[in-house]
Amino acid sequence: MKHIYFIAIFVFAISCSKNNSTVSQENFEKMPAITYDTTAIDSFGPGATSESVMAKINAVAIKREKDSLAAIAKAEQEKLDKEKAEKEAQKIKEEKEKAKTEQTPTENLPPNP
What we know:
mainly alpha
């Protein structure tokens, strides 16, 4: 039993030994420097957007949204109008065919002897 404790302590000691870092000093120098293209802007500092500018931006965005909604509504209305015109044209065509078929039976009768 003492051997098991000894082996466990030995394995634990080996596993806790100092590990060499995967990034050595040579590799660290070869790595490119990381640069960030963004900077933090304080809401009261220079470069911050004022409320009046944000209000103008929002007004333009709302106008564009309304314009796009109006364009969608116009396209839907045109589609409905086109479908309605097609239905009316189909109805007129059916009425003409019906009137034509009502007149043709008298023409198809054989002549009287």
